[in-house]
């Protein structure tokens, strides 16, 4: 049975924190930039954060800058998203992805639900 790639989602009150993990079974992040995207109900999927393959450079959407931190453990092939000061508008399904070129990427799992209550 294939294990879901993303984990760590759940229900949290506004102002709380969650840490998402992405450990794709049988697929590696090695040598690729990693990223997180999210999709809220009734909205298009949107970019959240990206981390360079080496881990030394990150990029964030303005809506999460200063609150979310993307990181990676290349030895364990795991991508993380630390989410602090969560807001109700952060409610969405969060997906991890890896970049296959500068601007193209592929999703690695079915997503994990994050729900922030007010």
Question: Could you characterize what this model shows?
Answer:
The chain is an all-beta fold and 118 residues long. It has no helices and eleven strands. Strands 2, 4, 5, 6, 9, 10 and 11 form a seven-stranded mixed beta sheet that branches. The protein has a four-stranded antiparallel beta sheet with strand order 1-3-8-7, with no helix packed on it.
| Range of strand content | over 45%
- The average pLDDT value, as a whole number, equals 94
The radius of gyration computed from the alpha-carbon positions, rounded to a whole number of angstroms, is 13 Å
Tell me the distance between the termini: 36 Å
Outline:
It is built from no helices and eleven strands. It has 118 residues and is mainly β.
Layout of secondary structure:
Layout lengths: L5 E2 L2 E4 L4 E5 L11 E6 L6 E6 L6 E3 L7 E6 L4 E6 L8 E8 L5 E3 L4 E6 L1
Characteristics of this structure?
globular; 0% helix; mainly beta; 118 residues; 4-stranded antiparallel β-sheet
């Amino acid at each position: 049975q294939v294990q879901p790639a993303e984990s760590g989602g759940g229900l949290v009150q506004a102002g709380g924190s969650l840490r998402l993990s992405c450990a794709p079974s049988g697929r590696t992040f090695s040598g690729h930039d990693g990223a997180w995207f999210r999709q809220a109900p009734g909205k298009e999927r949107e970019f959240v954060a990206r981390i360079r393959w080496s881990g030394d450079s990150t990029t964030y959407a303005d809506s999460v800058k200063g609150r979310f931190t993307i990181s990676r453990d290349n030895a364990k092939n795991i991508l993380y998203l630390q989410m602090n000061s969560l807001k109700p508008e952060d409610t969405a399904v969060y997906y991890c992805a890896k970049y296959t070129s500068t601007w193209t990427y592929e999703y690695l799992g079915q997503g994990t639900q994050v729900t922030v209550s007010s």
